[in-house]
Amino acid sequence: MNKLNGLLLTGGRSTRMGQDKSQLAYHGKPQREHLTDLLRPYCQDVFWSVNADQAADLAGTDQLLILDAFDWPGPLNGILSAFRQEPAAAWFVVACDMPLLTTRSFDALINGRDPAKPATVFFDSDGLLPEPLLGIYEPAFGPIIDRAVQGGEFSPRRLLQHYDVQLLSVPDRRELTNVNDPAARTRLGF
After folding, report:
1. How many CB atoms lie within 10 A of CB 174?
2. Are 65 and 58 in contact (CB under 8 A)?
3. Which residues are documented as binding site for GTP?
4. What are phi and psi of 67, to 5 degrees?
5. What does the record list as coiled-coil region(s) (predicted)?
6. Looking at the DSSP assignment, which residues form a beta bridge with residue 46?
7. Annotated binding site for Mg(2+)
8. DSSP label at 176?
9. 187: number of Cβ within 10 Å
10. Which CATH number fits domain 4-187: 3.40.1170.10, 3.90.550.10, 3.40.720.10, 3.30.450.20?
C-alpha cells in the first residue's frame, strides 16, 4: 500500500460560523489539534490544509501545512493541493467541522479500505450519497480531480458518485455531523 498521510481540511472561510471552525474547542483544545491527535496513529504525517490567511497566522509553527494552491473555495482545493504536494501518497482526509468523530470511524475506514479503488468513503449521514469530507483518497484520485477541475467540476461528492469507489456504512451516523454555524454548535451542547 502507498504511504498514508493525514489531511485535515481547515482552509474554509467559516463565514456561517463567524470564526475559524478549526480553532473551536469541543474537546478541551482547538478542533484542528484534537483531530490531528486522532489521525496521527493512522498516518505517517498529518498536514493541515490551510488558506493564505491561516498560513500567515501559522508561520513558524512545527505543524505540517499544505497551502491551498488554487483561488477557488471548497474542499477539493485542499485535496488537490495535497496531491500536488505528494502525488504518490494516499490521503486520509478529515474535515475540521465534525466534532463527534472518534477513532471508531477511523478504524472502520482503515479496515474497509480498498487501495485498488480510487477512494474509500462512508455513505453520508442519510445513508444515500458518498461523504467526501471523511475518507481515504488513493493516488489514483489525484488525476481524477485534475481532469474534473479542468472540466469545471468542483464537487468532491459528485466525483465520488461517478467513480467505482469503496462505500462503507459508518458505525455511528452521528459522527458525520457537520457543525457549520453557531446554532448547530449550540444544538450539540457545545
Report:
1. 13
2. yes
3. 9-11, 21, 68, 97
4. -80, 135
5. none
6. 6
7. 97
8. G
9. 11
10. 3.90.550.10
Return the residue matching grid coordinates 458525520. 176
Backbone angles phi, psi at 64, to 5 degrees: -70, 130
The 10 Å Cβ neighbour count of residue 82 is 24
CB 94 within 8 A of CB 101: yes
Domain ranges across the chain? 4-187
DSSP symbol at 80: H
141 vs 18, more confident: 141
**pLDDT for residue 16:** 67
List binding-site positions: 9-11, 21, 68, 97
Cβ atoms of residues 173 and 98 within 8 Å: no
Q: Is 182's pLDDT higher than 80?
A: no
- 152 C-beta neighbours (distance < 10 Å), count: 6
Contact predicate 48/5, CB 8 Å: no
**In terms of C-beta density within 10 A (0-12 exposed, 13-18 middle, 19 or more buried), how is residue 41 classed?**
exposed
Q: How far apart are CA 127 and CA 131, in angstroms?
A: 9
